[in-house]
Each structure stands twice: as structure tokens, then as C-alpha cells.
Amino acid sequence: MTDDAPAKKEARRSHSRSAPEAANLGKKGPAERSSVPGARVAVSGIKGTKDVLPEEAGSWQRLEAAARATFELYGYRELRAPVIEPTELFEKGTGQTSDIVTKEMYTFVDKGGRSVTLRPEYTPSVARAIIEHRLDLRAEPMRYYYMGPMFRYDKPQKGRYRQFHQVDVEVFGEKDAAADAELIEMAHTLLGRLGILGTETLVNSVGDRTCRPVYLKALRAAARAKQAELCPDCRRKVETNPLRIFDCKVERCREVAATFPSILDFLCQECRAHFQDLLGYLDVLGIAYRVEPRLVRGLDYYTKTTFEVVSGALGAQNALLGGGRYDDMMKDFGGPDLPATGFAMGMERVLSVAALPADQKKFLYLAYLGEEAKRAGLELARFFRQNGVECLVEFKDRGMKAHFGRASKLEAAWVLIVGGDELRKGRFGLKDMATGRQVEGTRGELLAAVRAG
Ligand code: HAM
Questions:
Q1: 384 near 396, Cβ under 8 Å?
Q2: pLDDT, tens digit, 9 for 90 and up, residues 184-201
């Protein structure tokens, strides 16, 4: 392959280019998955998965850095759990009646005969880790964050992947609605740092084990009356968990569900007061919201607060993030009775609407002529890198003109010239590619020039 092979040209050094969002999105053949027209590979990636190419990686890194910096300001610390977990963790946590557990898990039996699952979400893993390591016995606050891949076997489409990435945040031991409000405010702080505007915050309460059974009875009765109008999946949900009908994406089911009773009319006194507190704290924090009584969210564990931040710029899959309170999970897992609340943000979705400034990376291209200069160049590159200057040396026999052609194609900020003359004198040439100005000096003098530029 020559230096100018198109795929290489595309991938190399284009720090400032925006990502081709449509690339690799669950389409059929290898040619369609590639960002290069007509490209074919013998083995293509799995449908619904996505390669993050070098020109996109900078945005991912900036999102990760912004999330980390924001969460640490609020006292959160990173907790990294495995990608693979026992299947029963999600059956118990995410819930037997959720779409995730019934339809979407990557579950298989490992060589030891144990059923394992690639995590579809992170929340149950954090609860498990707290119990397993008795983090509840430590003095520090139980506030954790994490960023990483999740796996759901859903139908891929724009904004919905089979391997996707979440920024996840969880708080344990706080039953006060102020903790929920602070989480929502923290999510907005991060969205603000990412330049994401025009979002809407939806909030609801799904009650608790005192009031929800009463609501479920009323909901089931209403759903039974309209059973004939529901899709087969929802007809099954009428008996298993009618709350899950609200998660259905079928238009007719949505219309029917809109006529069902509202959970807010069934909240017990404690849940009602908690919800009123939440709204009051959001007002204190200056967060605008809309109460959405049908926001029950697709997971079985929620109690009291649920919320989502949606964006009109996203299309059908419009939730940038979603979360809520899950006060029963810890005790249901056999751990301490600790209330909990949290949210997860979809990184692909956030990146598709974030206004991240282009990466302004500057680097030095080292142009050498001949074996002796190559050796000196190796050492010089090491010197510049040790002093914090990004330096690229390509080990190809090129003439000076070809070196400059290549450096300019790659948009190098500087070219360092190492030839026979330069070696003899111990002084090298440095060309500033933006101004065209060339100076000569020792490596120390040229380092100072680069730093000044
Ligand atoms: P979730 O609503 O299932 O909640 O997912 C959270 C976010 O992950 C969604 O709002 C969306 O941005 C993103 N997301 C979900 N599925 C996909 C997908 N297939 N492709 C791309 N992005 C996706 C949870 O996962 C809960 N664990 C949140 C939570 C934390 N609740 C309490 N603590």
C-alpha cells in the first residue's frame, strides 16, 4: 500500500473533522457499514456495533473528561465493574417483566455451565459491588460514576445500537428528594459543558410498594377493557405488568395508553410528599421541568422519582439520559436496606448533539535524509516528546520535497529538518508550516521556538 492509499489518508490526523454519524449503523453488508464507499472486508463488525475511528475519538475523550470533571465536583468517584455478570443479577435487578430481560439480553452459557450476560445496563452491577465489598460500611459517601459499553439486542436504528455506551451515575443512602434534584441538576451541568441546548426535562413518580399495587389494579382493569386494541406483546403485559404497556413503541398502543389512569392520582402520602419536594428542589435549582405521568421507564426497579432529559434534535430515540430512584434494590439483593437513585446518559446520543470544539492538536513532523540522519532523528524525536511536543516520524525513504508534501497533507504545525549538513553543525532547521518562516538552531533553541509558537 502506498502512503496515499485513500483509507489511510482519511484516517490519519484529521483531528478537527466531525464524525460521519451514519457510518457503521446496523446496516447489512460490509460495504454499507464502512465510511469508505465500496470498501469490503472479509469479516465485518456485528450489526448494531460501531467502530470509533481516530477522527471521532477526540470527541469521546472530551465527553469523558467533561463527565469525570463534573461528577468529581459533586463528590462522585469512579467504580468499575465487569462487562460480564451472572444472568440472575439482571433478572432480579432490571426485572423479569422488562423488555431488556425478556427480549434484549446477550446471554450465554459459559464453559463452566453458568448463565452469564453482557450487561445491558450498569445499575445492578453497582448494587452488587456495594454488597460484595461492603462499601456501605465505609465512611465515604456512596456516590459512584462509570463510563463504558452496554449491550442490548434491540432493533438497531439511528440512536439505538446493540453495543452502546453509557455514562452512569449512582447515589446510595440518600432518601431525600433533594438527592434526585441534585442529580438532575448535575446532568444539566454536564449537558451545559457539552454545549447541548434545547433539552426538556420530564419528571414523574411511579410510587412505591404501598401505592403501586393499588394503581396496578386500576391500570390492569383499564387495560383489560381495551385489550383488543393492544398489540400481542401488550396483551401479555396486561397480566404480567401493565406498567410496561407504557414502554411500547407501537403507535396504537401509545394512543390507548394515553387514556389509562395516571399514577399521580394514586400516590400514597409519602410518595406524594416526596414528589412535591422534588419539584420544589428543582425550582430552587432553577431547573425547568414538565411532569409526565406516563414516564414509567422501561426498568422494573424504579420507586418514586423517574426522570428523563430529551432532545428534539435526536429523532425517535430522543432520550439523552434517563434515571430515577430504586429504593428496594439493595434489600431485594439481600444487602443493607439503602435507598438509591441515579441516571445513565447515552454517550452516542449525547455526542450526536454536543457542540464540542474541534481538537486543535499541533504536532511536529520530522524530515530526515539518509540512515545517519534517521538515527539522529530518532533521538531528536525522543527529546521533543520528552518535552511534551507531539512528534511524528515516518520511517520511509523520502526526499525533502516528498517530506514537505506529506507534512503539509497531514497538516503538521512544524517540520524539523535533519540532513547531513544539520548533523555536522549540530544545528537543525525548523519550518513553521502556517507562516512559512524557517529558523535554524540547536535542539534546545528549536524546542523554545516550538513552545513559543
Ligand atoms: P435507560 O433509560 O435504559 O436507563 O438508558 C439510559 C440511556 O442510555 C438512554 O436514555 C439512552 O440515552 C441510552 N441508551 C439506552 N439504550 C440505548 C441503545 N440501545 N443505543 C444507544 N443508547 C441507548 C438505564 O440504563 C438505567 N440503568 C439508568 C439508571 C441509572 N437508573 C438509575 N440509575
A1: no
A2: 999 999 999 999 999 999
Are 308 and 297 a contacting pair, CB within 8 Å?
yes
Measured CA to CA in angstroms, residue 146 lies from 78, 192, 345 at distances of 6, 19, 11
Residue found under cell 463452566: 112
The closest-lying atom of ligand 1 relative to the alpha carbon of residue 342 is: 33
Is pLDDT above 50 for 8?
no
**Alpha-carbon torsion 436, 437, 442, 447, what sign?**
negative
Query: What is the pLDDT at residue 33?
Result: 63
SS3 375: helix
**31 Cβ partners below 8 Å, 6+ apart?**
37, 38, 39, 40
Closest ligand 1 atom number to CA of residue 154 = 19
Question: Cβ(303)–Cβ(272) under 8 Å?
Answer: no
Instruction: Say whether pLDDT at 18 is over 60.
Output: no
Q: Is the CB of 319 under 6 A from ligand 1?
A: yes
Contact 381, 393 (CB under 8 A): yes
What residue type is 299 in one-letter code? Answer: L
pLDDT tens sequence across 107-116: 999 999 999 9
- What is the CA(122)–ligand 1 centre distance, in A? 9
